[in-house]
């Protein structure tokens, strides 16, 4: 806008959000995208894919020794996921709040997990938990050419042919 001359620091922060196979099966993709759009974040990457075992092993490397790890990988490979990159000020931290607690029973109403999930092993959505992890996860799930840089246009552009 013409009234503001600079953008707050960190407005280019990015995070990886993914609708997990249960979220896709339950037709929650649109709802989840809508929450991030209406919050004001910018969608800069989006794709549906069947995740490979190697991508999932890399993604959940830190959890490889957990007892639930094999079932986690099976769950994440059980169907397509919708992977997204969202951009905006503090998007990593805000996304974690929007997604809600890992344990569905602890997730507050109003969060994705608090509204749509009853068990930790089927918790609908993923969001990166730090800026460093987000950078790693974005490069794991997306090629740089799949990320789209686009600018907010003035409303008048809608009628300018
Ligand atoms: P997060 O997804 O909230 O970041 P993490 O601790 O990174 O949570 O765990 C990754 C995913 O592993 C969780 O979202 C959930 O799907 C699964 N998970 C974590 N803890 C458990 C558990 O105790 N039982 C079953 N699945 C779990
Ligand atoms: Mg995590």
TrEMBL record:
Entry GO MF terms: ATP binding; metal ion binding; nucleoside diphosphate kinase activity
The answer to whether the entry has keyword 4Fe-4S is no
Residues forming the Nucleoside diphosphate kinase-like domain are 12-149
* Reactions it catalyzes: a 2'-deoxyribonucleoside 5'-diphosphate + ATP = a 2'-deoxyribonucleoside 5'-triphosphate + ADP; a ribonucleoside 5'-diphosphate + ATP = a ribonucleoside 5'-triphosphate + ADP
How would you describe this protein's topology in the membrane? Peripheral membrane protein
Return the similarity comment.
Answer: Belongs to the NDK family.
Q: What class of enzyme is it?
A: transferase
State the coiled-coil residue ranges: none
Q: Which cofactor does it need?
A: Mg(2+)
Q: For ATP, which residues are the binding ones?
A: 20, 68, 96, 102, 113, 123
- Full protein segment contained here: 31 to 191 of 191
The protein's UniProt keywords, in alphabetical order, are:
ATP-binding, Kinase, Magnesium, Metal-binding, Nucleotide metabolism, Nucleotide-binding, Transferase
Query: Which cellular component appears as one GO term in the record?
Result: mitochondrial matrix
Q: What is its EC number?
A: 2.7.4.6
Active-site positions, per UniProt? 126
Question: Which example biological process does GO assign this protein?
Answer: UTP biosynthetic process
By what name is this protein known?
Answer: Nucleoside diphosphate kinase
